[in-house]
Structures are given as structure tokens and as C-alpha cells.
User: Which sequence fits this backbone?
């Protein structure tokens, strides 16, 4: 597992590329620790990181690393609030504080078992790097709210897409596509990241079918390295898991359910 030091680094933004309703933030990071698929970083704008004069600054935001190419780390952004909005305003040449890579990533499937990647909304990000690094081809199933967001599907190759409004691909839920794939190949291994409702659907379906699954959870984090206990989720059998250090990738068998706060924005 790649572990960063607990010192944040001031890096330079290379640019932001539009991808439908999303933005791909590219950050110059040729010397940073190489992340593993599923790991994340805590991001904060180098300047104007707060609500205005006299207001408290924002906490850093956790974002999965989408991929690393040519000395650039890439992150998938969506404007869903003040913190993400400020990151979406960054331009090439501006500074950004980065702490990472952090957390536990995905574990490759056993030899001979097919990987099924299931993503929803901005939660597709960590699956891009996973697809890049899998030695065998994977089946990719992605769900989005509408056609504008479905443009994000180009982040992964060969994806089958579902949209809530039917504007692109299958009209319905991505879990409906997954049900068909599991029926065709119950020996597969499922990797998922997305909204909490989608993740709970994946977890329950895989449990009922006896299919192993790894879920990349998201939760509000104040630190990113296990000190604040602000991102805990209940563990099957009792106790809690910290999403930042026990995850964000957690074996579905460790969970009775996926909490409503433990998913990516829809």
C-alpha cells in the first residue's frame, strides 16, 4: 500500500478539463508517492480556501485519485458545495495543497476471475485507475442521473451506461445491469464506488448471490488519517470502521449495510 507522509504538499494545477457536468482536475505531481487504485488525497486550494473574510476556512476535501499520467495526478470534480466549487474555480498555474495518497485501495481479483466495475456519478473516479492496472479486461457498468453526467463515462473504456432519465443507454439503475452480469458469471468479483444507495444495492445483491465485492466508500473527513473519527461506519458484528484508514475500499462482507452518508454524491 502506498503511504504518504502526513505532511501536505503545495503543488501546481496543470489545468481543468470539462467532462459533461464534471471537471477533471490535473495537478503536477512528478515526485509524489504513486497511489494505488482506490486511494484518495485531501485537497485544498492554495489561496482563498474559505467562506470569505472573517469566516472559518473550509476543511480539505477528500477525492479519489482517478489516474496518474505523465507526472500528473487527476481528480474528478463536481460542484456540489462551497469547497468543491472553489476547487472547480482553480486555473493552471495556481497552487493546491495535497495530502496523499491515503487509505486502502482495491485488491486485484484472483487469477481467472473476471472483474466487474460498477460506478455511479462522480464515484466512477477510482475505477478509472483500477481499469488501467488490471491485467485482464474488466466489465464496466456506469450509472448516471442524466445525459450530461453520462459524458463522464469516457473516463473508462468500453463502459455500458445506465441513466435515470433514459437519455443515454439503459433506462434505469446500474444495479439492474449488474444483476444480469452476475447471473451470467457468478464467479466474478465486483468493485464499486458511487452513491450510498447504489453501494447498498450492490452489497445486498452480491451477498445474496455469494459474489465477493469491494466497495469504495466516501464520507466527510476532517483529517484523512484516522485521528478525528469523523468518518466512521458500523462494522458487521459490532464496532466501527474508519473510512479514511480502514478503507475507503472495504470488503462488502464487513458491512451489514452501507450508511446513507458513506457514498459519493449522486
Assistant:
Amino acid at each position: 500500500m502506498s503511504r504518504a507522509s502526513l505532511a501536505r504538499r503545495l503543488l501546481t494545477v496543470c489545468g481543468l478539463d470539462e467532462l459533461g457536468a464534471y471537471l477533471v482536475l490535473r495537478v503536477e505531481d512528478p515526485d509524489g508517492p504513486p497511489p494505488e487504485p482506490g486511494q484518495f488525497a485531501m485537497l485544498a486550494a492554495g489561496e482563498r480556501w474559505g467562506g470569505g473574510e472573517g469566516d472559518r476556512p473550509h476543511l480539505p476535501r477528500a477525492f479519489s485519485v482517478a489516474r496518474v499520467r505523465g507526472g500528473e495526478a487527476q481528480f474528478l470534480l463536481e460542484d456540489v458545495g462551497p469547497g468543491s466549487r472553489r476547487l472547480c474555480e482553480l486555473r493552471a498555474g495556481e497552487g493546491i495543497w495535497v495530502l496523499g495518497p491515503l487509505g486502502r485501495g482495491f485488491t486485484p481479483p484472483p487469477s481467472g476471475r473476471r472483474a466487474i466495475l460498477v460506478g455511479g456519478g462522480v464515484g466512477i473516479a477510482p475505477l478509472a485507475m483500477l481499469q488501467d492496472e488490471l491485467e485482464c479486461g474488466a466489465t464496466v457498468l456506469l450509472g448516471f442521473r442524466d445525459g450530461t453526467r453520462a459524458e463522464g463515462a469516457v473516463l473508462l473504456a468500453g463502459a455500458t451506461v445506465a441513466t435515470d432519465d433514459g437519455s443515454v443507454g439503459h433506462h434505469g439503475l446500474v444495479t439492474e445491469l449488474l444483476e444480469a452480469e452476475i447471473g451470467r458469471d457468478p464467479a466474478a468479483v465486483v468493485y464499486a464506488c458511487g452513491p450510498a444507495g447504489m453501494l447498498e444495492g450492490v452489497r445486498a445483491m452480491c451477498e445474496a448471490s455469494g459474489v465477493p465485492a469491494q466497495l469504495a466508500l466516501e464520507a466527510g473527513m476532517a483529517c484523512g488519517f484516522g485521528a478525528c473519527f469523523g468518518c466512521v461506519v458500523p462494522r458487521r458484528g459490532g464496532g466501527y470502521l474508519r473510512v479514511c484508514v480502514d478503507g475507503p475500499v472495504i470488503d462488502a462482507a464487513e458491512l451489514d449495510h452501507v450508511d446513507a452518508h458513506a457514498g459519493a454524491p449522486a
